[in-house]
Design goal:
Number of strands: 0
Distance between the termini: 48 Å
Helix content: over 70%
Radius of gyration: 20 Å
Structural class: mainly alpha
Shape: globular
Largest sheet: none
């Protein structure tokens, strides 16, 4: 029973996270900004640290964290543009300089502010908290009881709230900006000819979606593994996609499939299905990182897809 609750908690946390990261990853890749999620997953750390420090004993407030992360994300994008415009750096060079610098700044601020003695320790920041997830109240989300829902939401990991916000934001914005995104991906010249009309709203939508998804990934799987959630489903979903919509749908389904397959192989089969068949449960996989297992599985499938798309 405990293994089933653990598997359910992992699914409830990872499904919206993977969906938000995959959809944001498609948008950023379509805009030739595929490496931006990696930068943002590192860049949000200083903003999160400053926001948490300013809150003091009041604890981590999601709104202040989002505001801090948005400011840090905007500063990172501005720094990248400065490096490209005034120092003639290429986009890969600017990213290579920017996101390790922001991550290092965040780690320094974490020590200076004393937050490294709290939940913002270096291991959690770099590798997330998924393997230590304990959320039995998650079962309340499957009931019709209002109090059970409230208990589940109030005890949910902070990254879960950001995941849901990211999915909600994308669900609102994608129908509004679908045509602009489609034009930018498939007809960059025509898109540029439209001028700055509506461009600021589009930029705000994309930055907010990417920041929310990066924040969710930061808190759940850490800054190191976050890029896999953005990149692998997008790469697999791109194969055969003839439009932005088909790319979004395929990437979303692939991302959800990655989560289901990881939980099935790592928890359900060894700890739930084997006992159901009268066989002893095997808990040996608990010593393996779930985040690492997801990353390896997703990367292997993405590489296999890439190999088929580009046969020798």
């Amino acid at each position: 029973m405990a293994s089933a609750i653990f598997a359910l908690s992992i699914l409830i946390v990872l499904l919206p996270l993977s969906l938000g990261c995959a959809l944001s990853g498609v948008i950023l890749t379509a805009r030739r900004q595929a490496m931006l999620p990696d930068a943002l997953s590192h860049a949000t750390l200083p903003g999160v640290i400053v926001a948490a420090f300013l809150r003091g004993n009041a604890g981590v407030d999601p709104i202040s964290v989002v505001i801090g992360a948005l400011f840090a994300s905007a500063a990172t994008i501005g720094l990248i543009q400065i490096l490209e415009r005034y120092l003639d750096a290429s986009r890969p060079q600017a990213l290579a300089v920017t996101y390790p610098s922001m991550l290092s700044l965040g780690l320094v601020l974490m020590v200076v502010t004393g937050l490294d003695q709290t939940g913002f320790d270096a291991h959690t920041v770099l590798f997330g908290s998924l393997d230590f997830l304990f959320w039995p109240e998650a079962l309340g989300l499957l009931s019709l009881n209002t109090q059970a829902w409230m208990d589940a939401l109030t005890t949910a990991p902070l990254g879960f709230h950001f995941s849901v916000l990211a999915v909600f934001w994308l669900a609102l914005g994608l129908p509004l900006f679908r045509r602009q995104l489609q034009q930018q991906f498939f007809d960059e010249t025509h898109f540029q000819s439209q001028g700055a009309r509506g461009a600021r709203f589009l930029e705000f939508f994309v930055l907010t979606a990417a920041t929310l998804a990066a924040l969710a990934a930061f808190f759940i799987v850490g800054a190191i593994m976050a890029v896999v959630l953005f990149a692998a489903p997008v790469l697999v979903g791109r194969a055969g996609a003839q439009s932005l919509i088909s790319w979004l749908v395929k990437s979303a389904l692939v991302a959800l499939g990655f989560v289901l397959l990881t939980v099935l192989l790592m928890v359900l089969i060894p700890e739930v299905f084997l006992p159901a068949l009268g066989l002893p449960a095997w808990h040996g996989l608990r010593s393996i990182s779930l985040t690492g297992a997801y990353a390896v599985l997703a990367s292997m499938i993405a590489l296999a897809t890439l190999k088929r798309a580009n046969p020798a």
